Amino acid sequence: MNRGDDGNISDLPWTAVFDPVANARALSAIQARGFAAASQLVDRFVQIAESSTNPAATKATTSAEAHPNGRAADADIDLMMNTWWSLWGRLLRSMPGAAAARGDGATFDLAAESANGGVHLTTDGSGPVVGEVWLHNGGSADIGSVGLRCGDLLAHDGAAIRADAVGFTPECCALPSRSSRGVAVEVSVAPDAAVGVYRGTLLVEGYPDLWLPVSLTLRTPAG
Question: pLDDT, tens digit, for every residue of 159-214?
Fold first, then answer.
């Protein structure tokens, strides 16, 4: 494995995919390069801001002369901001546990009528257990009201957590065009619930083809 002066890792052998140390080094190198690029973006942004507030500096800049009234500076600022947010998003996605932070676990896309992921909960005792599902409306039309439903959660031996123990907050919500909304899924585990894995199905009112799996793992007796 070769490491460059700028933190690059090249010629990584294929066996390194099984080496957690090599993987950690590769991730660190990627993040180091990203933060270095981000620093350069910030420096460039400061230079643009200073030139836009300093008439003498602006006149001395070729791009400003070609585009009067600060239009070149404005275009550069827009480009830098868009690049910054794109880079920042990529850095976040490279962090361990980033998928959980983004709430990617369970999603309903109502405009496209598609569903992805599932709600998977784990608990060591009785009481409420909370998960989350995201509702997306990427279309141009508003969706007036959306509600979720869940049936009984069943274990392999016939044990059950009844549907009335599953609640949603909010129970119903509106989705304007091109918007998203998170809905909390809360399962109340009774004190007499048996250890096991309980599974069910999450549905969306008015969308008969949409569904997601729901599971709750009770690892220790609830009592």
Answer: 999 999 999 999 999 999 999 999 999 999 999 999 999 999 999 999 999 999 99
Domain that holds residue 193: 106-218
Q: How far apart are CA 184 and CA 127, in angstroms?
A: 15
Q: 120 and 154: one domain?
A: yes
SS3 category, 109:
strand
Count of CB atoms situated within 10 Å of the CB of 133: 24
CA of residue 189 relative to chain centroid, distance: 28
**Final residue belonging to a domain, choices 101, 133, 162:** 101
Tens digits of per-residue pLDDT, 109-159? Answer: 999 999 999 999 999 989 999 999 999 999 999 999 999 999 999 999 999
E-assigned strand segments in the chain = 2-3, 9-10, 106-109, 114-117, 119-123, 127-137, 143-150, 153-154, 160-161, 166-169, 172-175, 179-189, 196-204, 207-218
- Angle subtended by helix axes 71-94 and 20-53, to nearest 10: 160
Three-state SS at 173: strand
pTM for this prediction: 0.55
